[in-house]
## 1
Amino acid sequence: MNVTVKRKTGAPKAAPGDHGTPAESGPPDLVQLLTPEGERREHPDFSVETTPEELRSIYRDLVLVRRFDAEATSLQRQGELGLWASLLGQEAAQVGSGRAMRPSDYAFPTYREHGVAWCKGVDPLNLLGMFRGVNHGGWDPNEKNFHLYTIVIGSQTLHATGYAMGITKDGSDDAVIAYFGDGASSQGDVSEAFTFASVYNAPVVFFCQNNQWAISEPTEKQTRVPLYQRASGFGFPGVRVDGNDVLAVLAVTRWALERARSGQGPTLVEAFTYRMGAHTTSDDPTRYRIADELESWRLKDPIERVKAYLLREGWADSEFLESVEAESEQLARRVREGVRSMPDPDPSSIFEHVYAEGHALVDEEREGYLAYAASFTDAGTDKGENA
Amino acid sequence: MAAEQFTMVKALNEALRRSLDENPKTLVMGEDVGRLGGVFRVTDGLHKDFGESRVIDTPLAESGIVGTAIGLALRGYRPVVEIQFDGFVYPAFDQIVTQLAKMHARALGQIKLPVTIRIPFAGGIGAVEHHSESHEAYFAHTAGLKVVAPSNPADAYWMLRQSIASDDPVVFLEPKRRYWDKAALDPSGTPDLGLHQARIARPGRDLTLIAYGPMVKLCLEAAAAAAEDGQQLEVVDLRSLSPVDFDTLAESVKRTGRAVVVHEAPVFLGMGAELAARITERCFYSLEAPVLRVGGYFAPYPPSRVEDAFLPDLDRVLDAVDRALAF
Ligand SMILES: Cc1ncc(C[n+]2csc(CCOP(=O)(O)OP(=O)(O)O)c2C)c(N)n1
């Protein structure tokens, strides 16, 4: 895609008096290029130019990703998935940053980056296997340079940093993005990743989606300093971007990736956004957050503002909007059917890939298991009935 | 108060509530334990009643949670820490084994570390990766820690009260698949057993089934099924994994002559290995059969759709019983 990103000055300045501002007090230094009303804004440091066609394609990504997510949520309610972590509200942060990457750039996600996976070309059905309980991953990370989902909070930021250190050793100009949440910023691993990335000048972009909540805990339970300012103590720049503004996210992430590529080291991007849904389908957000908050964020919806902009500029008409809608329904159908027809793994798969080179104990237990399972078949009864 | 029906979650909640009530130095801390009441609601309502200086929503940092609990304990508090799920205790493993477990000895007994670490553990609830692990052997292997695992609501209540009252650090493993089981409990009574005593959950004369936490119920079911075939199985609920009540175990095995240990963790180097070895040492001349073990395989905990194949079930327990009885 032909997005041009201009970075007009050096590292972003922290607003005076910012230090010590509780994170909850709102975003002082927010990069925004498209307002919630769908109007373009100029920013002194960041800009992005898109053709009407590019903007339509961004809109399509946003809508499809949201539709996919909604379908997964209903599939969980219908008992087809054991759990689902919805990205509702975070589409712009994910599509904006996902589209900023080159195919050879590597993404290290947490467990909610369905929109990034989409941009990297991972088949959305692949993401559902682990939530259905048929596998713990389900795709080859190297195929699209999109690593496996990571559930242990913060771990992947170190993996991303190490991978980026490898890129430097290889003399390549690829870059890495590590995704994590505001809650994750408290983990030791994340601080250690910042240290390593800084010391080794690793080409990694730390992309924190600050969706305001870590399950039931608001961001101020994790930090008393705006998250993007953390970076300065580690010696690299931090930028806070309107995470519901896909153009601003694209511009800022592009810039951060360019810095990485050109040997200028890591950047922390804090995408200021909001988790509109529950933490996961097993969570009940009414226990800890107020409806007003949700309503105020609803007015900042990442898709509505792109739509308003497209319509205002006359770059889209109802026919286009309907075609995207129709395409999203098609995607939902494919996902629904695909999930329902996903077979359960063979129980003996427990013993597969425990080691790359095999292991005598695993082999012994596999043989034991197979003989044991066969003893039920030989008896002509099903395992359950034999009890 | 007369005995009421309690789920294990409610029993644990009641134990925390009473402990907070009785001792102003008792604290509850962890991720989401406050307003949400914990992801399993074990701490439900405590934040409202005791306030946020006693029931503390911590940053999302397990090493930080345990490390600061150690500091609070040094300052005279009795922190009860919640780790959200078994698979998330590892970031805190360093603090638990290098610091918490050893400080009392390093201070030549001059300081006490009354920290209780509650961990919902083991599988059987169809969860995603890292939410079903049995890591008891790692902790039981570390001197300086006490490790316990209740199997029912009444034990959950009393054992948690006793753990909080203990001056030693206790790793308190909660079998999450038994969280919603109900049983009678009188919280104002007194406990029948000490924290580290095993319990004969069902008497029998032919073989001793040894289990703890989630597998006790399964073993009771196995004993009931075997009774229909005329086999009288004794079930011992270990309750404490460090220290182990070897006296109760040995007495039982000396009477029955046979033992099968059942746990969810992989068999290789699991609790069963130690139990089998000790029983062999103590009961060698009474044994009619080798001590057998039933447990998870030497493989990562599998995706939920195949966890039934991984976890011991009635058939695998009865199969081991038959093998032991056939000697
Ligand atoms: C080490 C660890 N501790 C606890 C958990 C349980 N847990 C899962 S998600 C979550 C909150 C994460 O919040 P944040 O990092 O802000 O990401 P978000 O889900 O909001 O995107 C917690 C506590 C975990 N997965 N890993």
Note: Chain A is about 45% helix and 10% strand.
## 2
Amino acid sequence: MHSLSNFCLLLVVLLNFFTLGSARLGACIRAVAIQGGLLALLPILSHGITGHTLLLSGGALLLKGLFIPWLLLRAIREVRIRREVEPLIGYVPTLLLGALITAGTFIFADFLPLLAQHQDGLFIPTALATFFSGFLLLMTRRKAITQVLGYLMLENGIFIFGILLSDAMPLMVEAGVLLDLLVGVFVMGIVMNQINREFSTINTERLSALKD
Amino acid sequence: MLAALILFPLFFAALAFLLPWYQGRSWMLPLAGTLHLLLASFLVVGQSPVAAPGAWIGLDSLSKIVLLATSLLFCSCAFYAVDYLKLHRARGNKVMAPCLLIFLSAMTLAVVARHLGVLWMAVETTTLASAPLIYYNRNRLSIEATWKYLLICSVGIALAMFGILFIAYSALGGAGPATLQFDRLLAAAPSLASPWLHAGFVFLLVGFGTKMGLAPLHTWKPDAYGEAPAVVGALLAGGLTSVAFLAIVRGVQLMGAAGDLTMARHALLGMGLLSLLLAAVFMVRQPDIKRMLAYSSVEHMGILAIGVGIGGLATYGALLHLVNNALTKGCLFLSAGNIQRAFASKNLSEVRGAIAAVPVSGTLFLVGFLAITGSPPFGLFMSEFTILRGIFSGGHTAVGVAFLSLLAMIFIGMGATVLAATQGETTEKKVLFKDRFLLVAPPLVLILVVLLLGLYIPEPLRALLQNAANLLEGKS
């Protein structure tokens, strides 16, 4: 079980890199969707099959793996985005930064006292690395939709950490967190549509009228 | 009872959404606001133990204070909103009214939460419910403000979630099952793994600090407050920031129980001073009266952080300040809204002589300015003075001097803008808007309460504040 969940987590990290380095928006969305699907496996792999883990996995698969990516793919079809991710800094520097962050989180996780059962797992560094990769994506891309994607990835990181603590997190709270994510992406989608209507682009660099 | 306080605004929200009658929808707001205020006061005064140990929601002295302040603020804003919405009929209230009510419900839940997960959920819901409110004006500027608000606050709150998870992890190694229930965490605090707890607190501070608008995480604030309608600005600046502050205070309580109060205090003190500094810098020559109010909000969040950061007497002062700030911000935003409507602008290049144009609103704005900068005899004078006494009696002379000089700088900077806007001949020949009862009575009531708090603090309130300060200090 352990090696299997570690393998999943490794794939999650690779998907982070893929998303950071990819120029195609559609591919990025699919990568984050696959990541969401992988996350859905983790509760079952690490805690076994119980009602709690089944619901959690099902929720994650439906929302993170299927529904939200579908919404985003539909959105890019509707606003007809062609070329594509438009980074503020190039792909190679982003990838390098991502690699640095990932290495940093592995070192950071080593400094924190881990419980015996989490010693050889990759949960904590992967969670942090995914979180900060999402952060990086959010900061370095111009398109509103890529920023939403970064937000999703960042939430994925939190989800990974949350799996370690599913004893402490009641199902209702977890469901609430997932619901907040869904509503959040929904509201962001609506705002994105308005941005597109108002500016005829979803390039957030246009959003720069307000400043001191 | 407590659950009813959270659920009935949701019911009213559904009602407001379904009601086909415009005026009726607007009136749902004051109806719910009044009911909320009555119920909240009843719960706060009632001595009965409201929460079972281990429950997910409950009232302690800290949440009672924030609950009272936000409830009173919402109630006033709700009455103001009726006429406000009447004047903006073209934009409709089908989104505004339900979102305001959901916002009220989420704020209440965040205030009474005894479970860190529930607290987080509620605060995130406030972000989502208030985003459509900021977008009310439907123009390019408001969309920009909404996008920034949504993204910055969501990401900030995500950091807070990490903090909460870290805290849960710190409990994992200790005795007993891992939990996020706040009372259990407090009881288990001495056995929490301190590296995780420290990291958790830092994440919590950064996350909820974003929501609260502590510098340097305040960047969404001037935009959102500047572009949002007056009612929403008042609720964000007075209500939401107080709620976010309460969330940070929960972290401080936990650190106190674990015996790490010093670290928490230093962090708060640093961010508080930075907030004052940045507010002072951006307040000088600020031509936009609403953005000026936003920086004033950054300033007062800084004062709250400093108060708790110093501890002792200053904690009591900070809690009193929270109430005063919430109510005064309400008065300022609501009267600024009226001024903006009279001049069809919120920029000093066009707003001149507001007192001549809209006498009541202009005067209220001027009085509100005097109150917010801590002039006697308003409540904020008392609370800022108490914090200052706490600073000097604690031997933090350097902090005290910095605090005073920054306050003076802010007074001068803010005064220049406010006086220019309110005094003198009005530039507007044909005034578009006259003071109306429902648009000036709510800010008037708020400022009167602040005045009252400066002259006399009722004994029950004093006891409540003292209890809350003791709770925060770890003395029970």
Note: Residues 2-210 of chain A form one domain.
## 3
Amino acid sequence: MTQALEAQAYTELLQLYAEYTAAIDAGDWDRWPEFFTEDCIYKLQPRENHERGLPLATLHFHSKGMLQDRVYGIRETLFHDPYYQRHVVSLPRVLSVDGGRWFLEANYAVFRTKLGELSTVFNVGRYLDEVVRVEGALKFASRSCIYDSEMIPNAIIYPI
Amino acid sequence: MNDAPITLPSSPAWPGDGVHRVPYWVYTDPDTYRRELERFYYAGHWCYIGLEAEIPNPGDFRRSAVGERSVIMVRAQDGSVRVLENVCAHRGAQFCRERQGNRKEFVCPYHQWAYDLEGKLRGIPYRRGIRQDGQLNGGMPANFQMDGRGLTSLKVAVRGGVVFASFDHSLESFEDYLGPTILSYFDRVFDGRKLKVLGYNRQRIPGNWKLMQENIKDPYHPGLLHSWFVTFGLWRADSKTSLKMDAHKRHAAMIGVRSVGKPAGDVVSGVTSYKADMSLHDPRQLDIVPEEWWKGPTAAMLTLFPSLIIQQQVNSLSMRHIQPRGPGVFDFVWTHFAFEDDNDEMIQRRLLQANLFGPSGYVSADDGEVIEFSQMGFQEKPDQQCLLEMGGHGSEEATNIASETLIRGMYQYWRRVMGV
């Protein structure tokens, strides 16, 4: 791949990251599953489990269908204090590229603001991603949110 | 002058003789909370520490907590499980800061006092002083005894691979503590099969620790708060339910059988959380396979007072450890587990069903949230009382979900121990 093409692909990746962040910070839940492939993995996992090879995740979805079910849960079934979330995501670091599959890592910090309250640091960690091209568009084949935060402040309802 | 009336919290007094009214100060008063730690966590009760599977080899240790106190669960050289308080006998330093690991001995970093895996004091640097100009100067007094100067060692009970401990060495046996009914449900899960830890979840819930015990002693809420439960029959008004207690009414077992099929009539009338049209895009999240050891019940939720909830909800298994952090906040640490002889398919099933539970779970993220809502109300109006009259005023065992009998039973015990 020429340098120009690599730069173009990286710009596209940045666009994927920016759009993902914008969608979840806006609470645009219908868009969220659309960033993923049909048989995607979405995982929200404590760093402790990840580093020790323990498989349990706080959320572990194995398909776009499960993400759509989560959206239904967020909208219809999970009772919780409403909150805004705001992500600050670092530039992704390319770990490797293999036959059109990008393996990437990016740090994130999520701030939460409850109605009438101060903004607080909600969850801090890194994304471990696998991105592929499906019909021209970049999608997450896998997105693992490995969080450093030792305590979840009560509950995490929305996707990270 | 502003002469608007000011309501001051009245001095804590229990309203009446019963347990169908619980005053809000029970959840907010700092003195009450201190007394609870002393009477429930630091004396008279077995507290959950961890699973033997977390420390398979001699020298393996894992930090845990009893109430607000840090303790270490460690496998000694002889293979036995010890529980030691994480406080150096010298200057009180909480010497162990790692979460888990393997050690031949514990050494406090401050002055390097060294303890063996049983907590005995084995070494003190400069104990006999420092040699200067051919003279030994300083050091511990000549009559200083190493014996009896070790780490505080807790009384330990291990049953079915689960470790409990107490600062109170005069405590009754763990088996007597649970009593035959609750013990039988404990043994139903921990029947000698080796356990396999799947991982942990940690959440900090801004509510009083008792509210979590109450939440799991309350079969009235799941079919209302948790839409998934009612829609998929996991806990519904037509579920066969039994509510059991030990003789002291401190522990409880809430046993249910899943209702398969669409509910009708009373079961969903007035239940606005019922979603008649709800279905899953991916049904693997509820791929439930009955297991032989269940012996019927699809759910058995045990509340072991004061510190533990044992969850068996369909194929998901977890220990939920309550660690109080003040009157209005507690940490809730989940250890999900499987059995060593489970095949990969069953492990995957347990892991997928874990999406139902934990700090983001479809049917338990909202438990933490509503506990927070209750605590907010308590703090605003300390003179008010909770009304706990579902199923009457008494605390007998019951066989339906429209009952708060287990919570009333817990408060009967609570009042006796607290002397209020």
Note: The first helix of chain B runs from residue 30 to 41.
## 4
Amino acid sequence: MQDTSEKKEAAPSTPEAVASFVGGRTGLIAKVTNTIYNMPAIVPLFVLTLAVAIFGILLGDSFLSPFALTLILQQVAIIGIVAMAQSLVILTAGIDLSVGAVMILSSVVMGKFSVDLGLPQEVAVACGLLCGLICGLISGFLVAVVKLPPFIVTLGMWQIVLATVFLYSGSEVIRSQTIAAEAPLLQFFGKTISIAGANFTYGVIFLLLLVAGLTYVLGQTAWGRHVYAVGDDPGAAELAGVNVRKTLISVYALAGLICAFAGWVLIGRIGSISPQSGQFANIESITAVVIGGISLFGGRGSVAGTLFGALIVGVFTLGLRLLGLDVQWTYLLIGALIILAVGVDQRIRKASV
Amino acid sequence: MKIMTAGLAGLAISAAAAGSAAAAGSVCLITKDATNPFFVKMAEGAFAKSAELGVELRSFAGRFDGDHETQVAAIETCIASDVDGILLVASDTAAITSSVQMARDAGLLVIALDTPLDPIGAADMTFATDNFQAGVLIGEWAARTMGDTSDARIGLLNINVSQPTVGVLRNQGFLTGFGVDIGDPNRWGDEDDPRIVGHELSNGNAEGGREGMENLLAIAPTINLVYTINEPAAAGAYEALRSFGRQDDVMIVSVDGGCPGVEDVAAGVIGATAQQYPLQMAALGVEAVADYAATGELPAPTEGKDFFDTGVGLVTDAPVEGMEQLSVEEGLAICWG
């Protein structure tokens, strides 16, 4: 008891300590829970490190080579970027089921505007990005102003956007060679920098910059704190002077824009533009977010965690393939991780009340 | 609830009718989904033929490849509306058979298009590509192009783990044509020829093709021949090879014959592809139902086969001796999608 009261007294003495969690219990378990609560990315980082170490021991150089390790980054780049958009929305206790569809629509708009309509490639890219932003704004408006549940709004948006993609594109693929000849800017993110066997595509670099940027914005700006506050308790946030509506709309709009960028990166990766792409991006992005330790109930977690979540999926997928195991083992392990991650989240949530 | 959603989706997806009032029969076309260019083209072929013959056509599709429930609802709708026959591309070839039997019991002619049912006799007839033969053509072409096949390092990009019959037939055909012992003909992946370095999955799309090829390269960087289930997967595989500067060392073969795929043959992305004819499948299907409505006559299979073979052509811009081949121009003239 003595120990606890000391902690409670000590807590407000430094500015950092004001927002930190001080539990009522002491001992090793409480310390661990506290650490996890204050650094939500630590669990996925631990799992990631462990997974890399295990596959490294089992596979040796074929897995630990710069080639294979950077290959994982390339393979998770698209989902990683989409998962950043998903993270923002989930931090506000929402969910965005339309992320994959918005990504594809943006890429189709970029392709059709430049190849079919003959617009300058820069204009076509801008139109594609604008398209994602508008989709996000509509979702945000419906969630924040009309007060519809995010699940329903984005479920509807998903179907509407996907149908638009198929109707507009006529299910036709724009070939890589056509894009390379007429609008090479669309394949910009597919370019690679090679350093000693490690291959970094511009898409991967974009993902890393995006994570860094969002980490800064979420942690160091008023807007970032508002996002967390709205996700944790919108009523309290409103009373504290946060403009909940504006915050929500801006989150969905930014998520839409990030999805549009994912569409651009996708063209770089697969070369062509296909309306059939990215069908599972919404589920895969939610998987990365959840494994990455962001609470589905909003208000807690970090985008760095999401990046680790996406990387865990990538490490498992490539590692198990290199081991020659049936791909179903990947699904099984990822499924177990999702449940485990939510279990950890609930445990911490309970401890923090 | 499930039946209701499936029914609504079935209704929402095109239920259009073509032809004149004095229709010479009526037919339902049920495809796996309404977005895959292969099925879009198939529906076009069916509409064109039914307009020509004055047959009334209703078109249905699942919401996605694998959507079994919507297909069942569509069959029920077709039985209820008393059409003469159903042209069906089944998502689940074994599970759909009880619904198909219901339709046949109600006096409808059921023709499986593209994908044989399991068992094949569950439908009155199957109009399809000989997928094994399609595989054999690209396998033979690859072997003849290589000459000495002992140095071949083969990577295989299939569809998915469920090993659908179409994918198995193409894969086994390719290996047979190339001169590899296939082991169990009903499964890919059990071959023990050392020239095979790996099987990967592509989901039949460009993203999967790229990722599958990357994985193959991580397993065995020396690969010099890649079989792909279809051309989008081939295009994805090529992107992966291009990003590692390996595009000129690896020969890619494929199956389908879609227009973007044939253009990829012209561009040197794909060495050769086996071309299918979905428009033909649908048009012949509509004709068969019209005949059945008029005379009660059932369509006959191709001689020596248990289905009606709608043909397959080998399209390449690097022809080899001793094989029947189509040039890129010929392939483009009859391609789909």
Note: Residues 1-23 of chain B have pLDDT under 50 and may be disordered.
